[in-house]
Amino acid sequence: MSRKSEIELTNMCLICDGNKVLVQDKAGTNGLVFPGGHVEEGESLLESVVREMKEETGLTIENPKVCGFKDWIQEDGTRYIVLLYKTDKFTGEL
pLDDT tens digits, residue range 24-75? Predict the structure, then answer.
């Protein structure tokens, strides 16, 4: 029995500014979501979350810290993993 399995890696980041947290009202979802996206082939997990935050929000984040994860098995047997990050260091404008 193989211990290897198909995995889809994604990330989300809580971008905090004092007591405010950035969320998105993203089309196709049922409510508000934290910005995030997929880890691309050959990309580190850290590179991925920094890139996704820039693409999704226009902000350049710094020093994101892992604060959790969520995972489940999809109908096709693929494990779906969401790495959750948090930061209060960023530059740029929304």
Answer: 998 887 889 999 999 999 999 999 999 999 999 999 999 999 999 999 999 9
pTM (two decimals)? 0.90
Among candidate residues 55, 42, 72, the one with its CA nearest the CA of residue 13: 55
Report the half-sphere exposure of 83 (CA within 13 A, side-chain side).
20
d(CA 60, CA 51): 8
Instruction: Count Cβ atoms within 10 A of the Cβ of residue 81 and give its class: 0-12 exposed, 13-18 middle, 19 or more buried.
Output: middle
Between the CA of residue 63 and those of 8, 50, 51, 52, what are the distances in Å?
24, 9, 13, 14
| Strand-pair partners of 80 | 8, 72
